[in-house]
Amino acid sequence: MVLVCVSVVCLAAVSHADYVSEVMADSPEAYYRFEELPGATNLIDSSGNGHDSLEVSNVVFGAAGGVESAGQFSNAYVQLDLQLSPAAGDFSIEALARFDTTDINRYVASQQGGSGQGRSLLYRTGSGKLRSYVGGSPGTTSSNLVDQDV
């Protein structure tokens, strides 16, 4: 899977300790906190399952986040060894992100298979809707996102 964010800041949570506890209580397959130091070349999986990044390109670690640091993406990505397939069962993706523009699609998580076909697992449309595209046609569109500064 590739975390693809174009001009996005992936934010930390409002109450850091409580948020970390809540996430870990769900036994996530992978958990990326984006708390690496500036200049880091690896994104660490905090779940304990060893899904550290394979490649990090143009991500600025140490950006200001909601509580602690964040990763800033500008034509950047993080490549992971994690594969999510709707055919294999249910999964969920959670992301705290602030987009600097709202007029075009902004991708948060996507993946590409060996055949070159990809899935847009989580993205925000230029009209402010959350969507998922896993093949065939775009998934159900959500209501507008909450526009809130953290």
Description:
Strands 1, 2, 3, 4 and 5 form a 5-stranded antiparallel β-sheet that branches. A hairpin with a 5-residue loop joins strand 7 and strand 8. 7% of the residues lie in helices and 33% in strands. The protein is built from 1 helix and 8 strands; from the N terminus they run ββαββββββ. The two termini are 27 Å apart. It is mainly beta. It has a domain of 98 residues.
Task: List the SSEs and their pairings.
Blueprint: E1 2-5, E2 8-10, H1 16-25, E3 55-64, E4 69-79, E5 97-99, E6 106-112, E7 118-124, E8 130-133
Antiparallel strand pairs: 1-4, 2-4, 2-5, 3-4, 6-7, 7-8
Give a short summary of the structure:
This protein is 7% helix and 33% strand. With 150 residues, it is mainly β. The protein has a domain at 2-99.
Helix- and strand-based class? mainly beta
Gap between N and C termini: 27 Å
Q: Estimate the mean pLDDT confidence.
A: 74
Spell out the helices and strands N to C.
EEHEEEEEE
Task: Give the overall silhouette.
Answer: globular
Number of helices: 1
- Bin the helical content: under 10%
Question: What's the count of strands?
Answer: 8
**Regions with little confidence, pLDDT below 50 for 5+ residues:** 1-14, 140-150
Strand content: 25-35%
Radius of gyration: 15 Å
Keywords:
three-stranded antiparallel β-sheet; globular; mainly beta; 150 residues; disordered C terminus
